[in-house]
Amino acid sequence: MKTILITGANTGIGLATATEFVKDGHHVILACRNLEKAQHAQQGLAALGRGKVEVIQLDLNSLDNVNQTANQLIENLDKIDVLINNAGMMTPNLEATTDGFEKQFGVNYLAHFLWTLKLLPLVQNAEKGRIIHLASMMHLLGSIQAKNFKANQIKHYNGVLSYGNSKLANLLFSNILAAKLKGSKVTSNALHPGGVDSEIYRELPKYQYNALKLFLIQPSKPAQLIKKIAFDSSWEKRNGDYVSLQTPAIKSRKAKNMQLAEDLYEQSLTLVKDYL
Ligand SMILES: NC(=O)c1ccc[n+]([C@@H]2O[C@H](COP(=O)([O-])OP(=O)(O)OC[C@H]3O[C@@H](n4cnc5c(N)ncnc54)[C@H](OP(=O)(O)O)[C@@H]3O)[C@@H](O)[C@H]2O)c1
Q: Is the CB of 10 under 6 A from ligand 1?
């Protein structure tokens, strides 16, 4: 029985992924901000009658909460076989996390950066540790600029571009982590899950969502790809890859820039230094 930890697993791609692993009899931990929603998901998964499903409270809006939840896991687990950084949000509005970061950068990227570094020793305890990052083709619109990290420093906000920035950061983190883990038992890979029918589009105007929906795929599709990345023998040696459902996996020039990845890594270490 493998231990699989998934952020944002109460709905969408996270829940579909949890379903895949529970069906195969694994131990799946749902790390979710809303315990009520998470327990509802847990009940549905338990009804499959396989594996083991646990819930842990995690609010990626707060680095302090990320730190505390990670510490709880470090106390209670011996290893994590698969760490899936899935939770994410999209908003057209300029908002800040508890720590003052622009919310999409803070939740989608920086909190997962801290989460991953805190939990890395547990992943390294696994026989073959796997770290999987939910990036997006929207990274093509992204850029990394320190002036966009803190919400109160942003003059002209564009929610779509900020989402792109956060997804570029996810991909750069996957790449630099892969480089740092090269030759070890742990791999780091990223994917664009395709355009997926999920709650992520909840803030879109209804007419836009209805048009978009025609092109969206079901969350079970990326869930199957994630399972493949985690356990398929064809992925055994793949590290630092980026794959995509639906579209060719085109990486932007920035996403291929390992110096940018290293710089972001160093900047991020400074941003979360109080917790490491
Ligand atoms: N859907 C797509 O077309 C698409 C395309 C490319 C990439 N992606 C990426 O795929 C991942 C999963 O997205 P999805 O489509 O499955 O979206 P979703 O259905 O909206 O699920 C997102 C999950 O993230 C959780 N979350 C949001 N903010 C959080 C926070 N502050 N702390 C903890 N959890 C938080 C949500 O919790 P609540 O239920 O409590 O809100 C939910 O469980 C995201 O990283 C997204 O960027 C999606």
A: yes
